[in-house]
Structure prediction request, 667 residues.
Amino acid sequence: MAEKIPVTVLTGYLGAGKTTLLNRILSEPHGKKFAVIVNEFGEIGIDNDLVVGADEEIFEMNNGCICCTVRGDLIRIIEGLMKRKGKFDAIIVETTGLADPAPVAQTFFVDADVAAAVRLDAVVTVADAKWLSQCLKDAPEAKNQIAFADVILLNKTDLVGSEELHEVKARIGAINPYAKLHETINCGVPLDAVLGRGAFNLDRILEIEPEFLEAEEYEHDHHDHDGHKHGLKHFHDEEVQSIALTIDGDVDSQKFLPWLNQYVQTEGPSILRAKGIVAFKNEPKRFAFQGVHMILEGDLQRDWKPGEPRRSRIVFIGRKLKEGDIRRGFLACAA
Amino acid sequence: MAENSLAANVKPIAAGAHVTAAAFLGDVPLFALGDGTALLLDAGNEKRIVLHPDAAILVAARADKRLITGGDDGRILAMNAGGSVEEIFHTDGAWIDALAGRDDGSIAWSSGREVGARDPQGAIKHFSAPSSVRGLAYTPKGYRLAVAHYNGATLWFPNAAAPPEVFAWKGAHLDVTVSPDGRFLVTSMQENALHGWRIADQQDMRMSGYPAKTRSFSWSGDGHWLATSGAEACIVWSFKDKDGPMKKAPRECGARRARVSRVAFHPKALVIAVGYEDGWILLCRLTDGAEILVRKPQSEAHDPVSTLVWADDGRRLLFGTVEGNAGVLAMP
Ligand SMILES: [Zn+2]
Prediction:
């Protein structure tokens, strides 16, 4: 079967610079043709690309669960786009400033027809360096967008001082230290920083392993103008946190898989993202998984390399996560 | 597996783009394609007509002696067998998501939540559905339109003052069809099931157990059976009794290790043309399950059959696939 078409989801609070990033992606001389799914027409003026209007229609799945939602309009639009397959190379979905990224992401895993045709590449969130701290206080959507991101563009860094920049980075780090963070002015990043990330691809997760599960260290080597090293301000976000746990060795797959499935089934609404690489006892291959709310996908990947420490690491990013439960549950799976 | 074969009676056609739909306009076979063109077989010669330049035909249906096409350019066109084209409607910046046509020339369409209906005299009426519309179907009798949307379906009377009749059922409804006797309304759903209502009293009927979405259904000529896609066999529900398919197991035919993507009942016999995701096509007789091979692609590939249409006299069958392979079967 032909290669699945990659989809990049652009999120970001109002005015952060999503449209700037979108126009930058479309106007670079990459020779690619994009299908762009937007909510407001107008500010995008690229003749060569296909622009489609969306209406952010949220469908609940019939299990009665509040977190199990998909974007009905995306399912319909992607079905239509596939009729002109071969006429575009990639899809970009721009969400409104107030959108929750979860239904968008879940669409690519829940709908079998969509999943067969396209693959979610990454969720890219544009944040305004000047206003993000305020948004995080006032708007749960802004927090969700940071928590959900694989890539964060901290934009308009020219409008803040180094103290302020330091603080906003620490706030992002408190919510989601696993996203790749870029400080930008006018969303100026190389395209490969936002496209072709493979953030949801279990194969790619392993290729880019040095980044995966390693929190970005925001505080390192940050010097201000007078040469004194700042101490890191430790922010703790009351609502959204990430929890990373490691077992230095194998886990029992008979215990781990039922625990993980059960945990996301009961705590799904509070989990925004989950991922991990796990060593199963007597299994030469590594097990990798990733998930959104209750949706989980995992598979055995390549062999553990000779000399590579067999470690089991998991990360949850979510809302009021029960850290004690997760820790106890995971540690009990040690083999 | 089918031992009998009609493969030698198939004339293959390289359509070259996603085959959205096919139709016979009188004797003329015609395909509506994802590259915005229509492909006609005029006395055996292929003729291409650009209907939607730089756009895709997303939906197409026959209305009387014309092919109606709806594109992602927001236009609805009607073309006759001679290739002359009339624009029926256009909307800026929106797609045409669903279309329905009727033998009296009536045409209905939807774009987002907005539904339009044009009667044979050319009068257009509009209706706003409660959410985006995925499927449309005219009732066989009376000027009524069935509209599938989120959380149910609606029967709308474009030319009457009567309020639309709402058939509620939670979930996202996709395609819609009305039984030839006008007694039942059936939708396919996002969650791999069909939902039916007895129109007279809105009695619900749930038809589930599919491993995939049903995106194709077809009534038998006598109206007693509904053939459906979405499983590794054609699933056929009985609608002969007043309770429809309730408490009756459906029949199955054409079971293979490939999913059925398209079905079309022969207009006169209890024979179903069944198209699969691997591009195979079989004719299956409902009464005894006998199978005849129509098409078996040279190579094993994922190339779902996207359209199957019988001529009104049942002597020919048109087919097309998502990768742009098409053809005509002439019955012996
Ligand atoms: Zn849920």
